[in-house]
Design a protein that fits this description.
Rossmann fold; 7-stranded parallel sheet; 257 residues; Arc Repressor Mutant, subunit A; single chain; 10 helices; alpha/beta; 3-stranded antiparallel sheet
């Protein structure tokens, strides 16, 4: 396929990745009769859009557990903002909050009540950046080795810091939610960090987009009974809401988008 325009070429590559195929830069360069540098630029652009994961010599398709936070934040933005607006109303003045690294919590960061004298801790670089210029709250950024997919720190150093905190209200990021298996994560280190966070929090909550009920994550964070509040979309199926309530969770529905 020689002389293929760059955008058309990227569409072809993106289509293969979407079908679950890995791609090799050298083979693509031969196929499209362009340099490997041109293909690497294509793959870099696709990775920036969250459409692939770059590896040495090419790229791999994105799986649910490898989508970067920045890409996840752009998906279902209106629904996440509706959940965040509802969750923000639960926050009380002078609370010590923890916003776990999650795209829904990134939306919540932009809607925290003003002049509440809040202290907010987070392990997320994006959430920390969003709150950096807020003069009406105290910001604590949990450090350590940054995981680019999770979008923050979940290593031993981060867990050690969290273990010394006394959190009033934490918002846990959930990769999957089930009445029988509880809240799950795609990565072992992320699940371990979230469990440590729950242990030092007086009240736990999670913002749940409806697709999380269909997801399957291999690492269990906690049973639903350990999560005090679940904020769900306004049109979440009744059977799912019933299953959450039966599991001992306080369910709060967001307003329509």
């Amino acid at each position: 396929m020689p002389d293929e325009p760059p955008l058309a070429r990227r569409d072809v590559i993106a289509g293969r990745l979407a079908q679950g195929h890995s791609v090799v830069a050298g083979a693509l360069a031969q196929e499209f009769a362009v340099s490997e540098d041109a293909i690497r630029r294509d793959l870099r652009a696709l990775a920036d859009d969250g459409l692939c994961r770059r590896v040495y010599g090419g790229a791999l398709p994105i799986s649910p557990g490898s989508t970067p936070l920045a890409a996840r934040a752009a998906v279902g933005r209106d629904s996440k903002l509706a959940l965040a607006r509802t969750a923000a109303r639960s926050i009380q003045p002078r609370e010590f909050l923890f916003l776990d690294s999650a795209s829904t919590n990134l939306a919540l960061a932009g809607l925290l009540p003003e002049d509440y004298e809040l202290t907010v801790a987070t392990n997320s670089l994006d959430i920390g950046a969003a709150l950096l210029r807020r003069q009406d709250l105290n910001l604590i950024l949990i450090g350590g080795s940054v995981d680019p997919v999770i979008g923050g720190c979940v290593d031993g150093a981060a867990m050690q810091t969290v273990s010394q905190l006394n959190i009033d209200r934490c918002f846990i990021g959930a990769c999957s939610v089930s009445a029988t298996t509880g809240v799950g994560a795609f990565h072992s280190s992320d699940a371990t960090f979230k469990r440590a966070l729950i242990e030092v929090s007086q009240h736990c909550a999670t913002l749940i987009t409806t697709d999380k009920f269909d997801a399957r994550a291999p690492y269990r964070i906690a049973p639903l009974a350990r999560i005090g509040s679940a904020f769900v979309e306004h049109d979440a199926p009744t059977r799912l809401l019933h299953s959450l309530t039966q599991a001992g969770v306080s369910v709060i529905q967001a307003e329509p988008v």
